[in-house]
Amino acid sequence: MLTGLAAGVAALLLLALAALPLGRLPFVGRMVHGGCLAVCLWLAGVALAVLLGGEAPTPLVLPVGPPWGAALLALDGLSAWFLLLLGLVGAAASLSGMGAEAPPSLPAFPLFLAGMVLSLGAGDGFTLLFGFELMSFASWALVAARHEQAENRAAARLYLIFALAAGAALVPAFGLLAAHAGGASFALLRAAPPEGWLAAAVLLLGLIGAGAKAGLVPLHAWLPLAHPAAPSHVSALMSGAMTKVALYVLARLLLDLCGPAQPSWWGLPLIALGALSALLGALRANLEDDTKTLLACSTIENIGVITLGLGLVLAFRGADLGGLAALAAAAALLHAMTHGVFKTLLFLSAGAVLHAAGSRRIDRLGGLIHAMPATAACALVGVAAAASLPPLSGFASEWLLLQALLAGWRVQEIGFQVAAAAATAIAAMAAALAAAAMLRLYGLVFLGRPRSPRGAGAHEVQGPEAWALWLPAGLTVLFGLFPGVLAQLAAPAVQALAGAAARPPGGWWLLQTGEGGAGYRPLAIALLLGLVVLGLWLWRRQVAPGGAQRGPVWNCGFIDPPPHLPFGDPFTQPTAGGIAQPLRRMLGVPLFAAREAVEMPRPGETRAARYEAGFQDPSLPLLLAPIARAREALAAQAERLRDLTIRRNLSLAFGLLVGLLALLAWLEAR
Amino acid sequence: MTFGQLPYDVAHLLGGFMLLLSFVLLYQRGVAAVVNTFAAQGAILAAAAAWQGFVQGAPQLYLTAFIAFAAKAVLIPLALRILIRRLDLHRNVEPALGIGPSMIAGVALVALAILVVLPITAGSRAIAREDLALALSVVLLGMLMMITRRNAILQVVGLMSLENGLILAAVGVAGMPLVVELSTAALVMLLLVVAGVFVFQIRERFDTVDTALLEPHRGEQP
Amino acid sequence: MAWLGAILTQLLHLALVLVAAPLVVGGTRWLKARLMGRRGPHPLQPWRDVRKLLRKRPLLAENASEISELAPLVGAAACLLALAMVPSFAHGMLLAPVGDLILLAGLLALARMALALAGMDVGTAFGGLGAAREMSFAAFAEPALLLCVLTFAILAGTTNLDAVAVLLRDGSLGLRISLGLAAVAMLAVAVAENARIPVDNPATHLELTMVHEAMLLESSGWHLALWEAQSALRLTLWFALLAAIFLPFGTAPAGAGPLAWLLGLLAWVAKMAGLCLALAVFESAIAKMRVFRVPEFLGAALLLALLAVALLFVSTGLA
Predict the structure, then answer these.
(1) Which distant-in-sequence residues (6+ apart) come within 8 Å of A191 by Cβ?
(2) Average of per-residue pLDDT across C48-67
(3) What integer pLDDT is reported at residue A551 of this predicted model?
(4) Which residues of B touch C172 (CB under 8 A)?
(5) Tell me, what's the pLDDT at A668?
């Protein structure tokens, strides 16, 4: 199996190598993406084999690596679970990429995939970090590919800064662990769990490093800019898989390598950051008026939800509540899987809309359900899952997570109990806000009337781009109906997180919180719902035969549009800003310093009144402004070094030399 | 005594009802509605005192209940209503701190009260412990109301709600001496405060009139 | 035998709520009119309206999509399924193991989403306005509801509605301040979810502050009939939920036989009538609030529910 994994990585690297000289030829883009599709399906198969058949006992030693230890490849339940997600998401994204024209940064796509596979399949810290950085830089190249536009350049720059920050935090985190354990392989690290200040430092660095890559608040500023800047199938891969790889690193570092004996309070920072991300991400998704930015903000929300689940695992494990830890672990893993798939679906739909209707801005779209019925149907599945409606996949994982949160009071500590209750409220609010955001997206893009001539001329997408929608849509429905199967499949991963004795809750057909606890039977719910809908429909046919008649829109007697506006005046429809108004006033004002102003013309003036609304994410001024100031100050200090006399320059070098010698002496003395 | 026993349950419920009314006081904007809510809180306080008198077999608590009912539920609200009518204060008053933030602050204060009271009363009986937590919450919410409102009448209501909390705490502890005397003294003080506000408000009105009379003369200065 | 009882009670329950739903809406309307000194329409008027509308072909706007056709079916089905899980006169019905409180919230969210999608389908200003407001209010109502569920989950150890109701019916918990606070919070959520005064006015279409009715402006014929039925089912559902949790007296076990069922039925009818009367009195006594006061109203409910949970932590720590 590990040979299969290695073969997959090698194939991806070969594809990148092949794309390098041939990238300009017309058929190469299709070929490379097709190759990626095959490799992704192969990797998903490998991951499935590990999940079903058990992990490979010994890691595979690669003939490459740093001089002090060869690179190791290993797959346990946890990494196989995320590899399965990567395989599914990567397959859909590659399939969609086959339809799009080859981007200028073609070799970066297989490299991006290879980086993610390497960090998931790594058996030691170095390989993991190497894969992580490869993933970061390849995805940066993909974001920066369309650098002609200034906003894309700005997004790529911000993305690079955060990627560097993530690396700068993760390298010392693994370095500290490796120095403590005397080696970088996972087995060695696991055998020597950190304690005291070392553990606290690893927790902090891991949260910063993985959090910055996953988009946890307050390190999320790059995500709503960078994800939309990339081509749509790359955005899908970034949102669906890359953020999950970062969460995998977080789980691997904090839940696995730091050992099972960490105290209960370790969960609290994760719970707090997760709840904050869920709330702010979902709220911001309600205020954005670009389809892909909206989806990126919804990704922040879901990342927060998964982090919340991981924090609960830590807290329950620390309090010796094994069954509940398994429940929370299953919730986090299931949500990672379901979110990865439905977010891929939504990003690919947004890409199809961008391709067909020529815009990402909600205020230039509308009524696309008539022109693009298949895309609209797939997007409806994704929207309903993202709004966590039963019986789709989003609800199943959300149900598990809420059950885990509702059991938070069993940790006998009143501070944690109140925190868990507050997190419950915030998670529920985030779910409702996500539903509002998804309604806003779907209602404005697919329903109503076209808002621009280009949007009115839209047509259904063809070929691989259209087929690529059906894979994640089908999986979303399937995962929604059989979450129990999924949870059983995740059993090795749950054990990796919650302890060897843990069992995922429920059976094949239902999710259950424990013996005799509440259960969720999605298949029964779906059947009953279908039955009632069918019954109502048949009864209606009995009572009132004949379909609907068509007529002009009523709209409270609003007059018919003039003949030169065949679709009606687009400005009589609700806009993105208008639908956002209630939430902007209720929550946007306190949380995002939202503002709105109406500028009325004076009596006698002929210009139209203007309505302006906007908001400011507090993370940028709060986080980046001090960093920017610090950089300025550092630069000023460095400038001063250039004016030194030669004597002082020499003394600097001399001081450095003496310092290094002293360090060496100290190290030898130990 | 624990849950499921009638004496405890009823006392608990009455205390919780007073806390709920404290939140309603914080939530209301209209001055008249605040006075009505305060009257209701006074009536509940009287009921709580009477119940404690019945449970503890302490007849002096009936007197406390009577005083609380007569003063808090009838007389003072009546006086405040007269005041409102005389001074024409029927408008809604925007608080200094918004409704939402003051509610959040209120819940935080209740959490604080619970965290403070529970550890330090670890040895005593459940009934006293939880009633004490509830009473302290009522006191803190009264204070919160005093500092978040600009209107003098609302501040007085806050003060009296605070005092309600104190009496609730006093009647909840069995064998507390001088409960009646305390409540009477507090009542006298409150009556003084109400009278003071009465006088103060009226004087303020005359003052405004006076300054208005003085306005035309300001032009003489260079 | 137990199976038989479960199936029988489930069927009877379904028939009962289908009969009760129009009566609950009509009865509340009638009581309200009486309280205001008017004669009011017959309590069966909603039933007559729905029956009339069901026979009519709907008139759809030219640019309406399949969403307009499907959404009423999905909305009504979700509400009916949710209502089928809430115990009325008997516990342990066939669907009792499925009846989870979070699932209930999910089904209500499904119905809400269907309604909002239908409201936005034609692209009219009113529909979008109503949909945006409905979803925004839900952002406050759902956490409040979830915190109430947390209260029950701590007391009963499960979120299964039937188990919670059985536990509360036994009365071993006594009167609890947390339950009282949760009841207040849940009443506020119920008022908002059913678009009643003071959050929305169920009697008007054309008020400026409309929420729920604004989304139905384009529906007609049997579409409108299904929407009306959905709102009646939703009101019945909330009443039944409140009755099952906070007024659990007299409900019969499923295996207890017809006589106990009859007693349970009488108790349920009395409870529902009491709730209708309470709602009518409340709506007559209070004025509608401005739309942007609603978050304060629901936020207060949310905080009260949080308080209920916090006090429960205290008392479970004691016991």
Answers:
(1) A181
(2) 90
(3) 85
(4) 4
(5) 73
Which residues contact residue B65 at a Cβ distance below 8 angstroms, ignoring those fewer than 6 apart? B46, B47, B49, B50, B53
- Own/partner contacts of A662-670, CB < 8 Å, gap of 24 or more, are none
CB-closest option in A427, A447, A574 to C121: A447
Q: What pLDDT is stored for residue A570 in this prediction? A: 67
- What Å distances lie between residue B108 and A410, A587, B104, C132, C259, CA to CA? 22, 20, 6, 31, 50
The answer to whether B182 and B155 have CB atoms below 8 angstroms apart is no
Q: Are the beta carbons of A445 and A294 closer than 8 angstroms? A: no
Q: For residues C216 and C244, is the Cβ–Cβ distance under 8 A?
A: no
Rounded to the nearest integer, the mean pLDDT of chain A is 89
Please name the member of A422, A443, A543 whose beta carbon is closest to the beta carbon of C54: A543
| pTM score | 0.90
Chain A environment of C81 (Cβ under 8 Å): 525, 528-529, 532
What would the pLDDT profile of A126-149 be if each residue is shown by its tens digit?
999 999 999 999 999 998 888 888
Question: What percentage of chain A reaches a pLDDT higher than 90?
Answer: 49
Residues counted in chain C: 319
Residue B214 pLDDT greater than 50, yes or no: no
Chains linked to C by 3 or more Cβ pairs within 8 Å: A, B
On whether the CB atoms of residues C94 and C178 are closer than 8 A, the answer is no
Beta carbons of A352 and A375 less than 8 angstroms apart: yes
User: Are C117 and A447 in contact (CB < 8 Å)?
Assistant: yes
C255 touches chain B (CB under 8 A): no
**How far is residue A597's CA from residue A581's CA, in Å, rounded to a whole number?**
12
Query: What is the torsional sign of CA A389, C188, A273, A416?
Result: negative
Peptide bond into C72 cis (omega under 30): no
Cα gap B80→A339, rounded to integer Å? 59
Contact check, Cβ <8 Å, C180/B17 = yes
Disruptive mutation site among B5, B18, B27, B136 for chain C (greatest number of C CBs within 10 Å): B27
Cis peptide before A566 (omega within 30 of 0): no
Task: Please report, for residues A162, A215, A218, the alpha-carbon distance to residue A623 in angstroms, rounded to integers and kept in the order given.
Answer: 12, 14, 8
Strand C252-253 and strand C90-91: the pairing is parallel
Given a contact cutoff of 8 angstroms between Cβ atoms, the answer to whether A127 and A71 are in contact is yes
pLDDT classification of B128: cutoffs 50, 70, 90: low
- E strand spans, chain C: 59-61, 90-91, 252-253
How many helices, marked H, and strands, marked E, lie in chain A? 28, 7
Q: What is the pLDDT of residues B28-50, one digit of tens each?
A: 877 888 888 999 999 999 998 88
Domain count within chain C: 1
Distance CA(A535)–CA(C318), nearest Å, equals 52
Strand positions, DSSP E, A308-384: none
Residue B191 structure tokens: 């009556």
- Write out A599-657 in H/E/C secondary structure: ECCCCCCCCCCEEEEECCCCHHHHHHHHHHHHHHHHHHHHHHHCCCCHHHHHHHHHHHH
Can you tell me whether residue A295 is helix, strand or coil?
helix
| Cβ pair C103:A399 closer than 8 A | yes
Domain residue ranges of chain A, discontinuous segments joined by +: 266-536+576-583, 619-669
Lookup result for tokens 């969960």: A267
End-to-end CA distance of chain A, in Å? 42
Per domain, the residue ranges of chain B are 6-220
The tens digit of pLDDT for each residue in C195-204 reads: 888 888 777 6
What does the alpha-carbon distance between residue A289 and residue B83 come to, in Å, rounded to a whole number?
A: 53
